[in-house]
Predict the 3D structure of the following.
Amino acid sequence: MSKKVIIPLTGGLDSTYAVWDELSNTDNQVIVWYINETVESLKTNGFYKMDVLNGTDIKTTTINNVVSWLKTNVRDFTFEYKTIDYTDKSIHPDLILDEKRSITSTFLRMAINEINNNNADVVVSTMEYENDGGEDGLQDVEGYRYNTSTKREEMIFRENANRGELSFKLLDMNYTQATSTYLLPEELFNLTRSCTNVTSYEQVGCGDCRECNKRKIFKILLNTYSNDLNKIWNFYYNTCLQPEGKWKRFRDITNEFLKNIPVEYNLFDPPVHGKSVNLGE
């Protein structure tokens, strides 16, 4: 049975893929939200430094281009610009002194309100696997450090949702950016935001901003492994996602190194965190 699914869109590769995949491979009623807040508003209200640096108001050119392409070339869906009600404590609770606000948590709380009011059934998280928890990361018994945002999303949903589902869509499919690089239609791929270091509308979605190193590496991996997404996932997991800061190693490896690595990695099973949470009806 068709469900009403809320998905955040930032104009980046991961969220664009999540929306494209939902539209292409399900008959669900897709509701896409873009949190459109100015950099100054985010800064004033205590959001993470990364949220402020990325901004939101400077991405609307990319967002409009991606939404228009999807509606024209895949199928219609509901798209809404959303703003944050800073007086609503259900979505913007008071802070503990050592905490910072995040766009991800705020978006999730807004979506939970829609689920609790029967206006939606599922909210999709667009987090991907990354070993960037650092000193404040959450650590399991095997020593794997998780991105804290994933566990925080699960906790918020379990505590605040009365029904419905939090779908860790990308985590559940062992997504890497090789997946979206390979499967997204080229025209749509080229519309996505290729770098977060943008400061004006003109730098967004025009092809002039630099391609990030991460995208470059996944393109090399696609060539190295003949577009075999499972082999790329195994390499990514064993090179990047294990403890001891191997993301830096992954980021810095060269083309020649990639061409000479063993093809098969079977030393580890993928981490089990971040599986979709279904509270039922």
Remarks:
- The first helix runs from residue 13 to 25.
